[in-house]
Amino acid sequence: MEILTVVAPVFGARCSVVVGADGSCVVVDAGAGVGPQVRALVAQRGLRPRAVLATHGHADHTWDAPGLAAAWDVPVVLHAADAYRLDDPFGTLGVLDPRHDPRGPLAQALAGAGVDVAAWRAPERVEVFGSSSGPRSPDVELVWDDVRLVARHAPGHTEGSTLYLLETDGAAPTVLSGDVLFAGSIGRTDLPGGDDAAMATTLRDVVATLPPDAVVLPGHGPGTDVRTELATNPYLVRPR
């Protein structure tokens, strides 16, 4: 499989287009403003979109998902525990809600990208995996033609935060980590649905057990790899 990247104008959120050998593809994290670029890329490459996935339900990772899904007549797919966020993705952001803080960072970023907060429409087709309650869900294999990913529940940033694991041609495995893991840092846990204890468990039982050579493509910022993060990330380095 091949991974193509489009960076959103809002908060620099990473949107990944995962392409199978047969030309099928899925789009992961269609953040605010990526829609035109992604549609042009898909058309230029002659790809066949099968789904629009989200690593979690925050608006900066889902804003353009309904539009792309409707244009291609495919579902929006995410963990069941975050599905409720698609009804009002700003209302689940607490202090970052641009309607409550019109001069805040998210409001400014949306305005700069020409995004109208009032224009949100929930996706017509939503498919979920995992459980909306209880402990961490087991891994789920997601398959669309030649596109195969493993969805690994990684709560802490949000209840339904998910890592997507995939094998790429002739290379180390790749992890689309959303806002769970960044290069040198981790996702914040102080917004609604965030949980320090859940994040600590995720870091110990999920992130630290990933293959050391796995490439990590975070939801924001530069890529990294698991070995580097285990050795240098202050949230993952264990006391000696």
TrEMBL record:
<protein>
    <submittedName>
        <fullName>MBL fold metallo-hydrolase</fullName>
    </submittedName>
</protein>
<dbReference type="InterPro" id="IPR001279">
    <property type="entry name" value="Metallo-B-lactamas"/>
</dbReference>
<feature type="region of interest" description="Disordered">
    <location>
        <begin position="219"/>
        <end position="240"/>
    </location>
</feature>
<feature type="domain" description="Metallo-beta-lactamase">
    <location>
        <begin position="12"/>
        <end position="220"/>
    </location>
</feature>
<keyword id="KW-0862">Zinc</keyword>
<dbReference type="GO" id="GO:0016787">
    <property type="term" value="F:hydrolase activity"/>
</dbReference>
<keyword id="KW-0479">Metal-binding</keyword>
<dbReference type="GO" id="GO:0046872">
    <property type="term" value="F:metal ion binding"/>
</dbReference>
<dbReference type="InterPro" id="IPR036866">
    <property type="entry name" value="RibonucZ/Hydroxyglut_hydro"/>
</dbReference>
<keyword id="KW-0378">Hydrolase</keyword>
<dbReference type="InterPro" id="IPR051453">
    <property type="entry name" value="MBL_Glyoxalase_II"/>
</dbReference>
<dbReference type="Pfam" id="PF00753">
    <property type="entry name" value="Lactamase_B"/>
</dbReference>
